[in-house]
Amino acid sequence: MATDTGEDEYDYDVAVVGGGPAGSAVGVFSARYGLGTLIFDRGRSSIGQCAHLENYLGFPGGVDAETFYELMHDHAEEVGATIESDLVESVEPADAGEGFVVRPQTGDPVTARRVVAATRYGGEYLRGLDDGTMYQTHEYDGETHEEFDKEYANADGTTPIEGLYIASPYAETSPQALMAAGHGARVGVSVVEAVRRERGYPDSIADYYDWVRREAERTEEWSDRDRWRDLFDSQFPDDHDLPDQRVDELREREVDRRLDAYIPREDADQRAEAGQRRLLSHIDDDLILDAAAEIDAERAARTDD
């Protein structure tokens, strides 16, 4: 579901610091919208401390942490995100006054229009952005300690600093991977909606959802492009200050996005098969061979009967 990207003055539209469930979820949503997305992952997510992940929805037998990590990153890369195996040392304002410079430990610095912090432990790399409200002090054992304020960000990830989002650490998130991924998805949607508003979509249209529907569910009325144009015009405010040409461009892009969300049954079947084959690539070959042998034995038994 890619759309116009267009922020050429930056290396990336979105830089995500942290490649665990929260950061990977952000990357999936931003990359699927067509935003150039870079995920920095130091390879030491708290997920790695799990002996076996048993409560993540969709894995009835549980899943080992290594396979789960591979699946997350495979998904993010499949939709267009780039994953850089490096630790981010600092995030600083760009010289132009908008956007950020992200400095990793070993690689070259990169610029990004937006940065999403998605590391569970601390936010020391954000010190260069601190306006005096990002960190809080507390007393422990007679000593004063300073740490990142987990209530600094709003529920949708936005912060007082334009372009900076916090997916983690955040007060309302949980160490549970499923909840971290859900919050990351919410922040990812928040990033996309901010981009849409920046590009001229009013609030009434900027709200974003990402789904794919069966073409058979679309009525004849909603197969007509002009019907979607009428809906767009009914939601677009009369007091806007955009040139007519820009409104026309936004309208056609939005209609394209809406229509592209419907796919024919054969396309859905192909995607389903491709998705299952992709999962097979993460399963041990010996287990696949064992399962195939069991299937062959069951088929032979049915034939004998």
UniProtKB/TrEMBL annotation:
Q: Name one GO molecular function term.
A: oxidoreductase activity
Q: Which residues form a coiled coil?
A: none
**What keywords are annotated for this sequence in UniProt?**
Flavoprotein, Oxidoreductase
Name under which the protein is recorded? NAD(P)/FAD-dependent oxidoreductase
